[in-house]
Amino acid sequence: MAKSALDKDLQKVVQLEEATHSAGLSFVVPGLTITFLFGAAILGGVSFGAGPLTTLVVIASLIAGYMALNVGANDVANNMGPAVGSRALTLSGALAIAAVCEAAGALIAGGDVVGTISRGLVRAEVSFAVLDFVFVMMAAFLAAGMWIHLATFLGAPVSTTHAIVGGVVGSAVAAAGVSAVIWPVLGTIVASWVVSPALGGGIAALLLLVIDKLVVEREDRVAAARRVVPLLVGLMAGIFSIYLMQKGLARIWHPGAGLMALGGAVVFVLGTFSSKPWVARRAKTLAESGRSISRLFVPPLIFSTALLSFAHGANDVANAVGPLAAIVDAASHGIAARDAVVLPFWVLLIGGIGIAVGLSLFGPRVIRTVGEKITKMNEIRAFCVALSAAITVLVASGLGLPVSSTHIAVGAIFGVGFLREYKTNRGIPNPGVQPRSAFLKTSRLNQTPEEAVENFQKRERRRLVRRRHVLGIVAAWVVTVPASALLSALLYGLMRMAALVAG
What we know:
With 503 residues, the protein is mainly α. The chain has one domain (30-426, 465-502). Helix content is 78%, strand content 1%. The protein has helices at residues 2-48, 54-74, 77-85, 91-109, 130-154, 160-176, 183-216, 221-248, 257-289, 298-333, 345-362, 364-373, 379-399, 405-425, 438-443, 449-461, 467-502, and strands at 113-115, 340-342. It has a two-stranded antiparallel ribbon. It is globular. Mean pLDDT is 82; it is low at 17-24 and 430-443.
């Protein structure tokens, strides 16, 4: 009895420690968030200095920090989700790699100059007073941050760029009327809702189909892997070298198309030949241990997700702090400029640190949605998703098509999931499809109602893409621009009202 009582007491102590740990975490997250936001506001005030609009710059710095947190929490998950879902990376490992690479991309390659977010969306002849311009920008990226915050809470990956575009449209219309917006530009952005996931999904499915045919479905998978995997590693290295030159380093280096192609070809050859010895040794080890050859794709997958995070930090830091740079420029010069503006290092610092902190504190929810809840991932599928993301961006840039990195990544996951589902269900008769030939009538048509029901149930069990999450994500995409626009218009009106009351 004494031993039983002691065990119970020890169990209570353990439960108390676990409860204390959970309670501690519940205080750590908001504490770190508040500390970062407070630091961003102080940094903005100290860096800008004294002036008639210093208070607004401080508030804008606070909003920029909030926006950066949300960009990190939602947008970065698209790069890390497949690697975590395939178990190539643990969640903590993915968070650490992404945080470092995102911050490095923002601070190293974030650039010195950015175009204000209103350029290209608001007509050039529309001129704002400085105070109106500041309110338009503040309302736009506060609305975008709030919408992304809600989407992250719901576990839905959405486009940060689309949220900011919606915010600018809403506040610009509220400030200067419907005619202020260049609507055809908004139309091309809406078109990316279809273009981005379709391209990403198609390319990812094609890559998976090729790997299945050349490696997975071969009788001697090890020998096939020794031949094919080095070529895939070289392809990944070449594509990502071009991707980094075009996207990740675009703000500090501008190589021509010929130089990028040459660099990609050189890296492809180096990557292919340098990986051959490692692939041969690793494939032999996996064959001897009976483990899946999909483990060969783990190192290139981790490398590719790190590069995607670096490029994302370099490009999308402007989404978080571009409006702040425009506000600082307008407040400093007394004019509402909508062309390229200088991006001070302290502004980049808010963006880079904010993205890393937001990812670390709030990213796991969306990472799990992207990596685990849409369809089942393994290392090969995740590799196809990552490589598809880079290829799709390059193809779309070459064709001049507007695309969203978020939509591309999620579309790629849809692509590999639906391909798996199609291949799995290929041999099961579909009761809703009429045969087209006498052969199909004898070989594929359900013979009895019971057989039709049985086959229907089999197909339902083999739905490898969860429709509920697909519909929820697509709905969030469609709603992002109008929701951000309406919220931004409301916030602009409240800011103008507060300014009038304050005198």
